[in-house]
Amino acid sequence: MKRFSLITLVVLSLTLGFSAYATDVGGLIETDTTWRKADSPFIVKQQVSVVEDVTLTIEPGVTVKFDKDKALLIDGILVAKGTASEKIVFTSNGDPTPGYWGFISFSDFSKDATYDANGNYTGGCVLQYTDIQYGGNVKPAVTINLSSPFIANSLIANNSNGGISITKSSLT
């Protein structure tokens, strides 16, 4: 009977695509880093800061859960490109109430999105096919200051203090 239960649990885990474990994150990201779906969910226990000229890539299907009042600060590059069928979710690691966690902030040091001659995204910061909910405790959930990330096909809802704040975008 014990063997049957273990096999059933493994099969269900693989079939449903969930991990029995979470990955705790926090602090400075000083080397290029990828948050993989296999290691999801990621629990932001301390504020996460991506330093200048460093890339944090988040794979499609990843869930990022923030502890109370924690934030993701981008001075480098954030590549969060989900897909229509595998969105990247940014949400609370507690009560699903607006303002539970902080915000995602793109500073003037973050890498602006770039585009080809046809207007297609080619690089830089991106939030595509993402769901951003229950953040915005002291600022809007996505705060853009003197930078220009590419944001498309994303749901930014159920946040406190607004969804997106743009202060002097770097594009004219």
Give a structural overview.
This protein has 172 residues and is mainly β. It has one domain. 9% of the residues lie in helices and 40% in strands. The longest helix has 15 residues, at 2-16. It is globular.
Q: How would you summarize this macromolecular structure in one to three sentences?
A:
It contains one helix and 17 strands. With 172 residues, it is mainly beta.
Features:
globular; 5-stranded parallel sheet; 1 helix; disordered N terminus; mainly beta; 10-stranded parallel sheet; 172 residues
Distance between the termini: 67 Å
Helix content: under 10%
Order of helices and strands: HEEEEEEEEEEEEEEEEE
> Runs with pLDDT <50, length 5+?
1-19
Number of helices in the DSSP assignment: 1
Q: Which structural category do the helix and sheet elements fall into? A: mainly beta
Biggest sheet details = 10 strands, parallel
Report the β-strand fraction as a percent range.
35-45%
Shape: globular
The whole-angstrom Rg is: 17 Å
Summed up, the domain count is 1
Average of pLDDT: 89
Query: How many strands?
Result: 17
